[in-house]
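Quarterly update from the structural biology core.
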Amino acid sequence: MLLSGPVDYAMYQSFREQLDAAPTEGLVVAELSTLGGDPEVARMMGEDIRFHSDLEPGARRFAFLGKAAIYSAGTTFMSFFARQNRYLTRGTRLMVHERKMAKQVELQGPLTRCLATAEAALNELRASIAIQEEGFANLVEGSTVTLEEVLERAPSNWYIEAPEAKTLGLIEDVI
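Predicted structure, tokenized:
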């Protein structure tokens, strides 16, 4: 499967078409180069990989091959692959950062309605943080990186070169 460009619904459609056409046995490689995009689309693609891996254990092995740049949503997608099935080409960089939110909350009207509006915004923020931390936990599973380290470094955009990603145990190898 060859994927490049922004992680968006067009990429998801291409991904699904290629996944559906992929061999039902053996190695299936998802090659990706991206500067990022929609994290929810990356999660959908990742859940498809997880589903097929769980549905067909032993029949197919799904591997990730990152090329040039695996930023943001690309790293999210990579995190759904087992660590031993993650590879980067020489010169590739990962970028890990926190999800972004741009939202204005307007409080106007009866106080109880204002409180409900404020609580809804806080609930959205809390849910987004929980989803973000699930992704970070997937990324570091089986590596020497702790979740706390990712939470500390992600707010300032953590760039990781391929050899460092291997040393940290985030990927299996650099090829």
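The chain has one domain: 2-174.
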